[in-house]
Specification:
single chain; mainly alpha
């Protein structure tokens, strides 16, 4: 009879241990699946937002650079070729800025400042910009922001670094060394 009790106790302990191990693995599996779900849901949105911002940064800078040299013929062309492109850039920035580190946000903020000055310069070539102060109109002279190109390059590099995860950059370095 003592052998029977020992076998029953060992069987019960084994069953409990099996259930505990099974439940632990099930819990860990559920947590892993939940983490993967969040990653599958949010990471593509983050990557898409930042890559769209990167593409629009290039588009807006190209438009500003082209119309710095080329003359805009009328307000409609200004709206289509410069203002709408700039507004699209601002929209993409507002969608992506929650995913960006502070240094990139700061760099983009500075780029926006210079890009706004560039857009005003382009607009002022079409017709003078006039401010009315105390009832007197004053023509405003807007100069092309010389720092625009440098700030664009700085911002572009920072965004590209955010888009390229560290492990991919390291893999690329190793790949290039092997060639």
């Amino acid at each position: 009879m003592p052998d029977t009790i020992a076998v029953a106790i060992i069987s019960a302990v084994s069953a409990l241990a099996g259930v505990a191990i099974s439940q632990t693995f099930e819990y860990l599996k559920r947590k892993s699946e939940e983490t993967r779900w969040y990653a599958d849901y949010f990471l593509p949105k983050k990557f898409d937002s930042i890559s769209n911002l990167y593409a629009q940064l290039q588009t807006v800078h190209g438009a500003l650079t082209i119309y710095h040299v080329r003359k805009i013929e009328n307000k409609v062309e200004l709206e289509v070729k410069v203002v709408s492109v700039f507004n699209s850039f601002l929209h993409k920035y507002h969608l992506a800025n929650i995913y960006l580190p502070e240094s990139v946000n700061s760099s983009i903020g500075q780029y926006i400042k210079y890009a706004t000055e560039a857009a005003l310069y382009i607009d002022s070539k079409l017709e003078p910009i006039v401010y009315i102060t105390d009832g007197h109109p004053t023509n405003v002279v807007v100069d092309w922001p010389e720092e625009l190109a440098n700030k664009y390059e700085d911002t572009r590099k920072k965004l590209a670094k955010v888009l390229t995860p560290t492990f991919l950059a390291e893999l690329e370095k190793r790949w290039n060394k092997e060639k």
